[in-house]
Amino acid sequence: MTPPPARAFTLLGIETSCDETAAAVVERDADGKGTILSDIVLSQIEEHAAFGGVVPEIAARAHVEALDGVVRAALKDAGKDLGNLDGVAVTAGPGLIGGLLVGVMTARAVAAARGLPLLPLNHLEGHALTATLTDALAFPYLLLLVSGGHTQLVAVEGVGHYRRLGTTVDDALGEAFDKTAKLLRLPYPGGPNVERAAGSGDAHRFALPRPLKGAPSCDFSFSGLKTALRIEAEAHAPLSDDDVADLAASFQAAAVEVVEDRTRAALERFLDAVGSEPTALVVAGGVAANESIRARLTALCDKAGIRFVAPPPRLCTDNAAMIAWAGAERLAAGLAPDADLPARARWPLDEAAAPLVGAGLKGAKA
Ligand code: KG4
Ligand code: ZN
Question: Which of 110, 185, 336, 366 has the fewest Cβ atoms nearer than 10 Å?
C-alpha cells in the first residue's frame, strides 16, 4: 500500500490498561521525527500496595476518577486544545477490561465531541514502536518486552508488522519478580526490592533451575523457578536477612541467565524468520529497569556486534506517549485502525501466531 503524502500529525494518547492513568500529546513531523509535547503518568501504586498486586476493581475506579484531569493536564502542558489535534489514540487492549473500557469510552467521547479520528490501539504496539520515537531506529529490530503482564520477543518489521518469536508459556517475568518479593516478604512493587536485596546476596547458595535454557524455541517459562524458590524458602524458614538476600540473588541470577539465553536464541533465529539482520535489540517494560538484566544484554549485544537500545525508563514502563506515537505512526503509514474496535482483555500483537497456551472465545491467551 502506498502511504499518504507526508504531513505532520499531533495526537492525544490515552493509556489505562493496568495501574497507570496516563495521557500525552505527541507530534510527528512530516519527516517522521517525533516530539513529546506532554506526558502525564499517574501511578496507582499506593492504592494497590496493601494487596501486594494490582486489584482490577480498584484500578478501574481510580481510572474513572483520575482520567478527565489527566487528559486536561496533558493538553495544558502541551499548550494544545482539542481543536489542534489530528486524532485520539487509545489503548484498547490487552489489559484489565475495566480500565480499558474507561480509556476507550473517554477517548470515544473526546473524539466524537470534536469530530476527530479515534484510533483504538494494541498496548504492545506502543511498546514495540517506542524505539522509533526515542532513537529514530530503522526496521527491522528485535524487541524484548519484559513487564508485569508480558514477556515476549518480537521482530518489529514495520508499522503494523510484528512477528512474535517467543513468549512465556506461564508467568510473566515481572510477575515472577513480584511473587518472589511477596514470598520473601519484601515490599510491593517487588522487582526493584528483589534487585536491591539481591545486591548483598550470594547467587550461588541456592541451585535454582533455568527453565527452557537451551530449548530450540525462543519461549520462556518461570513457574518452575518460582516453585523451586518457594521450596527452598520453606525449607529455611524462618528466613534471616542473609537468607532473603541469598534467595533473591539466586532467583535473579536464574532469571538473568534465562533472559540472556532466550534473547540469544531469538537473535540467532531472526535472519531466518525475517529475511534480514536486526538493526538493534530493544528492551521495554518495567523489568528492563533491572541493572543485572541490562548489563547482561549489553554484553550479549557487544559480543554479537548488535546495537543495544534501552529507551529511558519512563518510556520503557507504561505511558501514553507511546500510544500517541503509535497512533501517529499508523496515520502516517495510512494504516489507521478501525475506529469501532472494542476494548479487549486479550489481544496478541501477532494475531497470525498460533496460540501457545490455548485460546478461548476472546482469542489467544498469550
Ligand atoms: O512495565 P511495567 O511498569 O508495568 C506493566 O506490567 O505493564 O512493569 C512493572 C513490572 C513489575 O512486575 C515490577 O516488579 C517489574 O516491572 N520491575 C522490575 C524492576 N523494576 C520494575 N523487575 C526487576 N527489576 C527491577 N529493577
Ligand atoms: Zn506495558
Answer: 185
